[in-house]
């Protein structure tokens, strides 16, 4: 007969030298952040979808020129930047929680969280660079490669 542990029973602390049995307020702040960022993300995402799909001509109108025109406004740059940062922080925090819950070995947990944080930094840095350095009409480009709205 196999006994299955009660899923509602508190887990014993992981063994190891100097390991604390409580995590302090960090987990509480993470929990509160997830709820608050989730609400803000709903507003940002539905605003993004409304402007891109409902207010315009639908998905067929989204092209290079649409994005170039949208990102010409600092308002939409900040909107998309907030959406990127909040979504990445929200998602990273969620995956971090899953890794903490399910990775049994300290080494495994360290490697997974290291890869997670590396992916977070790469996506946030590259996304931020794209949003703020996007230039649909780069100088010195051949005229046949520029969009129709650029003056050669």
Automatic annotation (TrEMBL):
Biological role stated in the UniProt entry: Membrane-anchoring subunit of succinate dehydrogenase (SDH).
Chain intervals for the UniProt region annotation (Disordered): 1-22
Protein name as annotated: Succinate dehydrogenase hydrophobic membrane anchor subunit
Keyword tags: Cell inner membrane, Cell membrane, Electron transport, Heme, Iron, Membrane, Metal-binding, Transmembrane, Transmembrane helix, Transport, Tricarboxylic acid cycle
Entries under SUPFAM superfamilies matching the protein: Fumarate reductase respiratory complex transmembrane subunits
Parts of the chain that traverse the membrane: 28-51, 71-89, 110-134
Main subcellular localisation: membrane
CDD domains with a match to the protein in the record: SQR_TypeA_SdhD_like (cd03500)
Cofactor(s) essential for the protein: heme
Pathway: Carbohydrate metabolism; tricarboxylic acid cycle
Keyword Lipid metabolism belongs to the record: no
Localization per Swiss-Prot or TrEMBL: Cell inner membrane
GO cellular component: plasma membrane
InterPro entries: SQR/QFR_C/D, Succ_DH_anchor, SuccDH_FuR_B_TM-su
Gene Ontology BP, a term: cytochrome complex assembly
Membrane topology note: Multi-pass membrane protein
Gene Ontology MF terms in the entry: electron transfer activity; heme binding; metal ion binding
Species of provenance: Cellulomonas biazotea
Gene3D superfamilies named in the record: Fumarate reductase/succinate dehydrogenase, transmembrane subunit (1.20.1300.10)
Short name of one Pfam family: Sdh_cyt
